[in-house]
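User: When convenient, might I ask for sequence and structure tokens for a protein?

AI:
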Amino acid sequence: MRLIMILLLFGMWTFITGGCDSGDGGFGFIPTGRIVAVAERDDSTEVHVGAPRGSITPGRTVTVINTSTGETKTTTVEDDGSFKLEFSASTDSIFRVVIEEEGIDETIGVSIISDAVSRDLAQLGSVPTNIKIVGNRAYVLNGFSDNIQIFDLNQNPPQQIGTIALPPGSDPVDIAFLDNTHAYVVNMIGQSVAMVNLETRQCETIIVRLGMGDEFPPCSNVVLVASAFEDPSGIEIANGKLYVTNSNLDEFFEPSGNGFVTVIDTETNQVIRTISTTGENTGWITAVNGRLYVVNSGNVFFNPNTGEFNCDTESIPSIDIINPEDDTVVDSIVIPLSEQNPSVCLPGRIEPTPDGRFGYMGLGITGALLKVDLRNNTVVNGSENPIAITPLSELNFTADIKIRDDGLGFVTLFNSDQIVVIDTTTDEVNPFPFISPFPAGLRADNPSSDFFDGVQNLAIRPGVSGRDFLGADIFFITGLSQKLGSVDTTLILPPE
């Protein structure tokens, strides 16, 4: 978390001195079926025509004709039911796709990846740290504004319908929803956890470390606890209890020994116990398969003279697995560092696949992902063989990853202002038809720019677009320009 703050503050300066961007989605061809033609941008000269896995009977012959030029190509459907052909063509081309054995003869236009993105939908508070979606509402935590903005996603663009204020100096970084009316918010600088009422939009109770003060307006009730918090970072609810991770950092934002997890009874808001962890910088927690997976991210060194980050080889990342029935650490997964990849470290929150078999983690100083087997508690893709999205030698930050029910993962790239798709069934990056990252900020438009928006966290709206709601299904926040944006993936591939 503190590394994120360094990146935020550095990037904030470059953004302020460089200005902002206001790109919006366009008006490319809107597909209605699983066979689509896709290009990266309106001025692209390369068009991909095909269908994703599971769309067509394997072995079928596919003929595609560019009706604008007469160019014709033929291919065979792959074993996974997909096919893809590439054409040198303009984005106003029309393609005819024929699969005689399937009785398919379709005419389609070209859908544009960049058209699916809408930026600058709303102004956020100072240093937004997280976004969560419940139903038709998005909750955005603002670290330096000490509040939570609430947006109605049924309105287009989303409209802010309220704000929940927290005590000054709180720095909210994570939120967990107890039920439809209450949520708990972790405040890192404030060394506290606040219980807020989602209906009245008031802070009802704050659980805070002794020595931080006696009154915490606007929170109504105060619960003072001794030594329960030390830079609280992540939060999860399980078995009627609240689990809060603590990074345990010193005044220089360096780990001050291993972290720990604070356990709180949600009925009484009293601390029950603390659980020691096996590593430093304990910042993220996820409930999967009846267990709690706690990520000890480790540490990195920053050289202000060279501007380079490197992994701290004395601070090895690990994952602790907690049984919420008795609050014991039942297993740990060590993530060894790699000499050949000195920037592959600082893993973030575990995002599980829909079946709970695997978990993916972003990384703090490079554009890559780690993968772990959550059933066998082993590392699949570690520091030696990460899933690379951008070159490992380049500074980047895979700030967040969320995985949909269909197994497609969406990954934010903070430094390059992009949202990348990964197929978690194959670990393919940019799987068809998502042939290129979604451009979500300044640097995605101009990779050589000194300025960027800092595409940070994202959330997937529950349900299916077109059936349960209309419009965008993914919403993201930018840490530097402090804006809300969205992606409508149905403009590239409609849901089945």
